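Task: complex structure prediction.
Instruction: return structure tokens for all chains below.
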Amino acid sequence: MTKYPFTEKKDTRSGFGAGMTELGRTNPNVVTLCADLVGSLKIDTFIKENPERFIQCGIAEANMIGVAAGLTIGGKIPFATTFANFGSSRVYDQIRQSVAYSDKNVKIAVSHAGLTLGEDGATHQILEDLAMMRSLPNMTVINPCDFNQTKAATIAAAKHEGPVYLRFGRPVVPVFTSPDQKFEIGKAWMVSEGKDVSIFATGHLVWEAIQACEILEAQGISAEIVNIHTIKPLDEKAILKSVRKTKCVVSCEEHQMNGGLGDAIAQTLAKNFLAPQEYVAVDNSFGESGTPAQLMEKYGLNAATIVEKALKVIARKG
Amino acid sequence: MQTKELQDIASQVRRDIVRMVHGCQSGHPGGSLGCTDVIVGLYFQQMKINNRKGKGGFLTFNMDATNEDLFFLSNGHISPVFYSVLAHRGYFDKAELSTFRKINSRLQGHPTTHEHLPGIRIASGSLGQGMSVAIGAALAKRLNGEKTTVYCLMGDGEQQEGQVWEAAQAAPHHKLDNLVGIIDLNGQQIDGPTEKVMSNRDLKAKYKAFGWNVMEIKDGNDMEQVVTGLRKAKRLLGKGQPVMILLKTEMGAGVDFMMGSHKWHGVAPNNEQLAAALAQLPETLGDYEVN
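Output:
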């Protein structure tokens, strides 16, 4: 398998902040909005360098989404930022009507997605946002995996014309993708080629998949890892190409089993090429308080579970 | 434009409204009739709009509205009046009004950008969202160094939505003095008088407390008062505060049997009622043809 040595750990939200800093310097139309979470979103540098292009919205997320939609009418590219919980489920109707149905060039950029938000607990640990956002027509949904990919995705989102939901997280994780990568929305990234099982992973689960792949390799199993950073539009071509070779699938996401990446893949397989699939996802439950590592272990979102599911799905092959 | 000319346009728009709602046997005539005068006053007198004509002799429509005044309809259910005014203003053929709420139409039940109808810049209908969008557009105009004005019409029942008050606190906070809000105070909503369903209490005091410059138009169905009031609102801009107009209207204004009750909020007239309504509204600019 392809090796991914890393020298440092960083949070994906800092990758977003770095992307915004660059956009602030290169694109005068980019405007940032935030609902009282500037420090958490790592946009301090953007604000310092472009104070007139930052709009503090206070703890009023519904209004923030509408304001973002209105800004596009003057040719601006607004990034509406908050925690993933408050930028999706809390404002679903505002996103649906004023952004997606109205086809406005709004970027909803949200941090602290999923269980790895940690100690704040289930009230803040959104695990349903990918399902909500991928069900909206016109919406592009992206969940990058590390600092560098998040930075690249942020810059790509600004270039993309149309609504984008960009989801990232709180904890520090290994930085293993290239700092000068080309990020193409809707194009999956082949992390490591293999022949026995296809592991499709998004967000924080990509690093777990790489570790799982090493464990599987030691057991003589050749796993293929594909990073599906764009949940919608889904790179069906890359998925089918991989599954036609391996004949079985493990999908991995920091999200509910219902309606997320796994279901998007299952839909593609059902329509095109039937193959057994196992899910690494939260199984119809809310999260709880704990450290990110404890939560990922308790809810089965780690390398150990990916290995277990891979062995199970290989056994299910006809 | 003379008041008489504006009144003639309003009379034709009212005819369009009852015919549109009758034509598809659905829609919201009451609020549409009540807001006819203010929307006609905005589009034919007050607002600075790009008058350049393009394909088919219709107005060229630029989504970004560069150097144009902007209007947002937050209470999207009064779409009949909005569509009729846009057609008469020259955005599209008034014959298209006959497609209102019918299959494959650009004139959806509630306004939308989705069907690319010129003149519409945001979808509205799920209440409470329009003022937020207007704030965003006003911020963009300020960032772009424009001196133009953004208008947003809301309903009084709509004031019950929480997001309205998020927007109400945001506009003065950002000192948006290029923004005019208008609340249609007809005192009625689907389930009955607003006072009974969920009282707004004192909207003037509320908006003042939030930091708006609040003014009133005592009879929003008197074109003279509407035009004067809109001029006054414009004069109040540029002083560090957004302006809110409390516009007293009569739901169903112009059609006697539709006035003074919430019953015509969302009900279509039958053939006899249509004839009775049209008999009260002079045909001034010609009725649209039904395809």
